[in-house]
Design a protein that fits this description.
InterPro entries: F-box-like_dom_sf, F-box_dom. This is F-box domain-containing protein. It holds the Pfam family F-box-like. The chain is an alpha+beta fold and about 240 residues long. The protein folds into three domains: about 55 residues; about 35 residues; about 100 residues. The chain is elongated.
Length: about 240
């Protein structure tokens, strides 16, 4: 950011002082802050009250939010469904906390559109019914907060049977508790968070992938435009930040 732009920002936010020396000092500080990464900028905010006001400025954090979100398939649900405007700094903090979350919550399960892809152990009959095996769009599944599952019309592997899902937590031999999803009578699906924020449910026969729905996500060929409405039971996590 150039010095004139820094001065303009200082005047707009009321951070410039009357003293010429003080103004020059603010310019230097703010210009340096534009070069900092998010972690360093957050630490700068703890130095003193004046630095905090400058380091938490929306115009510094909004570009960091935008850059972070281009790498995420899903924006945190509490930001998508928020009833009031949050500062870019707080939105960034929530986004980082969300990116570290490794356990799937009901709101995430129910909000997203899921694609199901079969694996070779299912056998040739079922694989031939899976359009993703022929390079076409994968079949979709929708999980609901009442424990039911639905699909799109004319799904070739949907038998119209009663379909249900639930979370299970299993204690391993080492005492570690791992999260799983039980879908109908399939063997348990392991839960994994991918680097771009998508969720993957996988067992020996198939896997489910949450379809990207962040319109600014830069690494997906297409994003789901479906926006399912959450019920009162599906409260998205806020990570103690709002």
């Amino acid at each position: 950011m150039t010095v004139p732009k820094v001065m303009k920002k200082l005047r707009e936010t009321g951070e410039a002082q009357q003293s010429g020396c003080s103004i020059a000092g603010d310019i230097i500080q703010i210009h340096i802050m534009t070069l900092l990464d998010a972690r360093s900028l957050a630490r700068t905010a703890a130095v003193c009250t004046q630095w905090r006001a400058m380091a938490l400025a929306d115009w510094l954090w909004q570009p960091l939010c935008d850059e972070f979100w281009t790498k995420r398939a899903h924006i945190p649900l509490c930001l998508v469904l928020k009833s009031c405007k949050l500062s870019p700094y707080l939105a960034y903090a929530i986004s980082v906390a969300d990116s570290k979350q490794q356990e799937l919550c009901p709101a995430e399960m129910c909000r997203h559109t899921w694609e199901i892809l079969l694996k070779p152990p299912c056998g040739s009959y079922w694989l031939n019914l899976d359009p993703s095996q022929r390079g076409r769009a994968a079949l979709r599944r929708y999980f609901h907060c009442d424990g039911s599952i639905s699909s799109t019309p004319n799904d070739p592997i949907w038998g119209g049977q009663e379909s249900v899902w639930r979370f299970l937590h299993v204690v391993g031999p080492d005492g570690h508790i791992s999260q799983h999803v039980q879908i109908n009578h399939w063997p348990l699906f392991n839960v994994k968070r991918l680097k771009d924020g998508r969720w993957r449910l996988e067992n020996y026969y198939a896997y489910y992938l949450s379809k990207p729905d962040n319109p600014t996500y830069a690494y997906a060929p297409s994003c789901s435009q479906e926006k399912k409405v959450l019920c009162n039971m599906c409260t998205p996590p806020t990570y103690g930040l709002i």
